Each structure stands twice: as C-alpha cells, then as structure tokens.
From TrEMBL:
Name of the protein: Uncharacterized protein
Domain DUF7275: 204-405
Superkingdom in the source lineage: Eukaryota
Database matches in Pfam families: DUF7275, DUF7276, DUF7277
DUF7276 domain sequence ranges: 420-630
Organism of provenance: Rhizophagus irregularis
The DUF7277 domain, residue ranges: 36-180
Length: 638
C-alpha cells in the first residue's frame, strides 16, 4: 500500500517560492548543522571504495540549505533537467530532481547528469503534518502583508505546517542531523564546487539500510548493501549472525525511521489466519497452481525426521511459530528451518508450475519473499540477518519438482482464476510484481487543444540488481476543426538507462506548428496536416493511430528488452501482457472510444485472430496481429 503524495511544485522558481514561505515559519531558528548530510550508497562508497557504484545523491538538508542549493545551481554552469517538491503526508517533504551541465544541451555529448533526492528537515516545523487551518494552496499565497496588527497582538497562526512541541517525537532526519553534528568527513557536490556535504558515518548508513530492508523493491541490491556495511563495521565477524547491537540514539532513530517508512509503503501480513493454506493463498494475489498441499512439500525437503517448523508451534492450526521455541533451538537448526521454508516456496511457486527450471534462482526468489512479503517479526529478521549463510542450496529441488509433477495431477483450483490469463502466466506475473515500481509522475506533455494521459512502471531484474527496464504508456485524444476524432497511443518498453539517452536527444522538430512537445521524445504523434509521424523512435513496441476513416497499428517484438530482466521464461510476449495487465491502458477517461474493438471483432470473425487472443487486452490482440503482418491498417465508416 502506498500513501498518496502531492507534487507541490515542478520547477525551480515555484520550489524556491514555497521554501521561502516555509522558511518564514522557522522564526528565530538556529543552525542545526553547517552542511547537508549525505546518506545512501554515495556515502557508503566514500567509506568503502569497493562498494557498488551509486546512482544518485541522497541528502538530508535544512530549508535554508535547500534554498542555497537551488540558487547555486541556477547561478552555476548547470541546469535542472527536472526538479520536484513532493509532500508525503505523515512523512515529510522531499526535493527530487536531476541537474546537468548547461552546455551539454547544445550538442550530443550530454555530460553526466546528477540525480538527487533531498529530504527536508527542521527543528521548528514538523513537515509530517500540515496545520489543520491551512491547505496546500496556501503555499502559493503571494500576499506579502504579513505584518502584525497595529496593536501587535495578531495571534493568528500563519504557519503552513505544525510546529514541533516538546511532547512531539522528532523525525528520523532531525535525529540524523544531530548525530552528524560533529562529523568531519565531507565531500563536494559535483558541478557546483561551493556546496559541501557531510558524509554520514557507517553506523548511520547501516541503520538506514535496515529501515527499509523488508520491502521487495530492490531487495537484492539492498540486502547486499546491508551485509557489506555490516562486514565493514565488524558486525558479522562471529560464526552466527544476529542483529547488531547499535548505540542507543541510532537504535531509536532506526525505530523512528521504520515507522516513517511504513507510512509511505506498508507491507502487512496476518499470521493469525486459520491455517497455512489460507496464509499462502492470502499472500498470493495470483493463485498458486497447487498439486499437493504446502505442508506435504515441507516433508520432501526436511532435514530431519520431521519438518522443523512443526516443533515450533503451540497451535498447530496457525502459521505463526512461537518466538520462545524458535529462540531455544540451536543456530544451525534455525538456518535449516528458514531453508526448509524457502525450498518449499520455491517448489510450490516456481518449480512445480514450471515457471522456472532454475532451482537456484527459484530458491533465491523464495528467500527474498520470506524476508519481505511472506513473513514478519523474528523469523523474517533472522532470515535478513543471516541471508549470506542461507544462500547455499543443498538439495536437488528440480528432481523433487519433476517427481511431484509425475505423481500428482493438478487439483481443482479453490479460486476462480481470471479468464484473461492461464495459471502459469499469472504465476509468472507474481514473480515480476515484487520488483515493479509505478512511476508516479512525468513531465507535462504539451499538446495543443488535446488531452493526454501517461503512465509507467519500472521493473528491476530480480537476478541482477543493476538492471531495470521502463515501460511507458501514452494515450492522447483530440477533435479536429472539422469535428473528426483523433486517437493515438504508444507503448514504449526499453532498458531504463536507454530512456535517459532517448529523452536527451535534441530533435529537430518536424512539427513546425509546435502543437506537440513530448519531454521524453517517445510518443510518435501523427501530424494531421503534414500526414507524417513526429519524433518517431525505435523504442516503440506498440503504436496506434486512428483518424477519420483510417486506423494504423504498428508493432515490434519486446524480446530484446525482456531478456534484459533475466527472469526465467519471461519473453517479450509475456512482458507486453504484464505491462498491459499492470497499467490497463484505455481511452475511457476521454469519454470517447476508438474503433479498435470493432476491428478486432472483425478479425476474429475472419479467423485472423484466435478467440483466445480475444480474451486479452485489445491492444495485445492488435499487437499480435500487427507483429505477424508488419502492421495493421484498417478503414471504417464515419
């Protein structure tokens, strides 16, 4: 579950104005710290040269420091490619953006863009909660007359956000600034030589990484980072790993950070369900294709006479294991208990349904689920703390899977599966979903006298944390001067690092009217007057244009991009299905429906498209047909 966030401003001038408004609320403020604090992988790389290469700059800064940062960038030889001020109710304010050397826009050598994420902090104003007497629009109030009444007794509370009180707990970011007050380690922000940042110490970086380790997004990257930090701190030097004994202020900061993180993104598991079967059905939005019960698979991977979990329950009907019993067993038995569960999940969800034939990959995916979405508390924490020692798979799971497939026919599903996808496809979708992150906002597309909608997702490879792909769907609609309807849609699926290259290309616009401007340069808008595509790119997997009595659909295979994810059995066909299933694009929001469905029905009647394809998203059916026939052209009556 993700809480709603609000983009307060999306250009440097508006952000500066809002920050100045907030700055007035920090009356009689004192300087918390001389410089912003650098956290995240960039700070870890400063301490540990062999740490992975960072992607961005994560900072914690005061309002005045953030104002200074923006002003310095504006005055320097740099420019904001984009910048946004985002408000997360219950969590706080962030500035996210990208800056780049300004001369790089004049040619094809674009320089190195700098991504940044600034978490705003104050000891006077609580950014987690707005004043109930104020609203977001008040941030844009330009009324400069804020003097007191003549008698000096104006008691109106003009603060946009609530003020901190002695009884109100501090934010984790404020605690971090206080913990870093005397730190001497510093680094210069690139492009702007006068902006110094304090480098957070490793103990704080380890705690911050621990605060969001339970979430599936980028888990493989995060768990590797966490244990790299712990090794550098000497936490994992004993034979049996455990949660580190942190300094009390850092431990308190961590607990606060965890609560703040849960406000933004929460993963809840109810371990008091009726039984194990109900527990695993609940945690599988796309139903498992089950040949034998979950507990029977445990019997096939056990290390002793009985599965270990059986001795750790008081109530045998519950999925919950007893903490006191788990703590009493020896260290190796604890490891084996987690491994038994991971092997069972790997068999049930990936190997038996033949979603994957790679037992190591399936086991790693199952282990990641134990650390994130399938459990919480002691069992989950033990798996996280001991993750490096759990990675060794010492049983032949493929042989067990084949034996189950041969001996046990498929039982009837308890739940009615969606008619859109077969069970195998749904399980593959489940494999991808934990690594999918929705893109919450895009720079505005300028389309004169038309309506535009854009959505997108980023999928990180579960087997290579440095690889991700981006899928973006764009739809637009307009009515010409002669009252003819025009529809256009595109699906772009490409490696995420290539999206940057596409968006930076300085096209010589073919659209002299200036009626269409796409900041990402990925939507092939069709110029009605010039009768040609504008800014057509090679990254379009699917394009649809319909105007007057004509409809044109173009398609391209997505196999190349799908292979980048390195997910077993995920090809371009399944990837395109997944994108359409996740984003579910349509023209319904425009209250006008193009004649695509009519043509699909006609092709089915002519047996050019199978009835099976007809149960899919209509764009998928059109994509399949266009792939086989180069493109789809159709004419319809007005």
């Amino acid at each position: 579950m993700t809480n709603k966030s609000y983009i307060l401003a999306s250009n440097d001038n508006d952000i500066l104005h809002i920050l100045e408004v907030i700055n007035k609320d920090e009356n009689d403020r004192t300087s918390l710290i001389d410089h912003p604090v650098l956290i995240g992988s960039r700070a870890a790389k400063w301490h540990i040269p062999l740490f992975r290469d960072p992607n961005d700059w994560d900072l914690i800064a005061t309002i005045s420091q953030s104002i200074s940062f923006i002003n310095i960038v504006i005055k320097s030889n740099a420019i904001f490619k984009y910048i946004k001020l985002i408000y997360y109710p219950g969590s706080g304010l962030k500035i996210v953006g990208k800056c780049i050397e300004s001369f790089s826009f004049t040619g094809r050598n674009h320089g190195n863009p700098i991504l940044f994420n600034i978490e705003l902090v104050s000891d006077k104003v609580d950014f987690r909660k707005m004043n109930p007497n104020k609203k977001i629009d008040d941030l844009y109030d330009t009324d400069e007359d804020d003097d007191d009444d003549d008698d000096g007794n104006n008691n109106e509370d003009i603060s946009i956000f609530e003020s901190f009180e002695d009884t109100k707990p501090k934010t984790s970011s404020l605690m971090i600034l206080e913990l870093c007050h005397d730190i001497k380690d510093k680094i210069m922000f690139p492009l702007i030589s006068s902006f110094l940042c304090i480098v957070a110490p490793l103990k704080i970086l380890e705690a911050l990484k621990s605060s969001h380790i339970n979430y599936p997004s980028n888990f493989q990257k995060n768990i590797t980072d966490l244990h790299t930090l712990r090794v550098s701190l000497g936490y994992n030097i004993t034979q049996s790993f455990c949660s580190p004994q942190r300094d009390e202020p850092i431990e308190f900061m961590l607990k606060t950070r965890i609560m703040e993180t849960e406000i933004i993104q929460k993963a809840e598991v109810d371990l008091f369900m009726t039984n194990n079967e109900e527990f695993f059905d609940h945690n599988n939005e796309l139903s498992v294709q089950r040949r034998i019960p979950h507990n029977d698979i445990h019997e096939l991977v056990k290390y002793g006479e009985h599965p270990i979990y059986e001795s750790l329950k008081i109530d045998k009907s519950k999925a919950l294991i007893e903490k006191s019993l788990f703590e009493k067993i020896d260290y190796q038995t604890k490891l084996n208990c987690v491994k038994e569960e991971a092997m069972t999940i790997a068999l049930e969800r990936y190997l038996i349904p033949m979603v994957s034939k790679n037992q190591e990959t399936s086991y790693n995916l199952a282990l990641a689920r134990i650390c994130t979405t399938l459990s919480k508390g002691l069992f989950c924490q033990f798996a996280i703390d001991n993750y490096p020692k759990l990675l060794n798979l010492d049983k032949d799971l493929l042989s067990i899977a084949y034996d189950i497939i041969d001996k046990y026919p498929l039982v009837e599903q308890k739940k009615q599966l969606s008619s859109m996808f077969d069970p195998e496809t749904q399980i593959i979708f489940e494999t991808i979903k934990p690594y999918t992150k929705e893109i919450l906002s895009f720079d505005e597309i300028h389309f004169y006298d038309g309506r535009v909608n854009r959505t997108g997702i980023e999928i990180t490879s579960p087997v290579d944390r440095y690889v991700s792909i981006t899928a973006i769907v764009t739809t637009l609609y307009m009515t010409s001067e002669k009252r003819n309807n025009y529809w256009s849609a595109s699906v772009v699926i490409l490696p995420s690092d290539e999206l940057e290259a596409v968006s930076n290309i300085d096209y010589e616009s073919d659209d002299e009217s200036g009626a269409f401007d796409d900041p990402l340069n990925i939507h092939p808008y069709y110029n009605l007057d010039g009768k040609k595509y504008i800014k057509l790119t090679s990254k379009n997997v699917f394009t649809f244009n319909s105007y007057k009595d004509r409809m044109i659909i173009r398609a391209k295979s997505a196999d190349y991009v799908a292979n980048k994810l390195k997910i077993p059995d995920v090809n371009g066909d399944l990837l395109f299905k997944y994108v359409l299933c996740y984003l579910n694009p349509s023209f319904e929001s425009f209250n006008k429906i193009p004649p695509l469905g009519h043509h699909m029905d006609k092709l089915i009647a002519e047996e050019n498209i199978s009835n099976i394809a007809a149960t899919q998203h209509p764009w998928y059916s059109a994509w399949i047909y266009a792939l086989k026939n180069k493109q789809l052209k159709a004419f319809h009556r007005k």
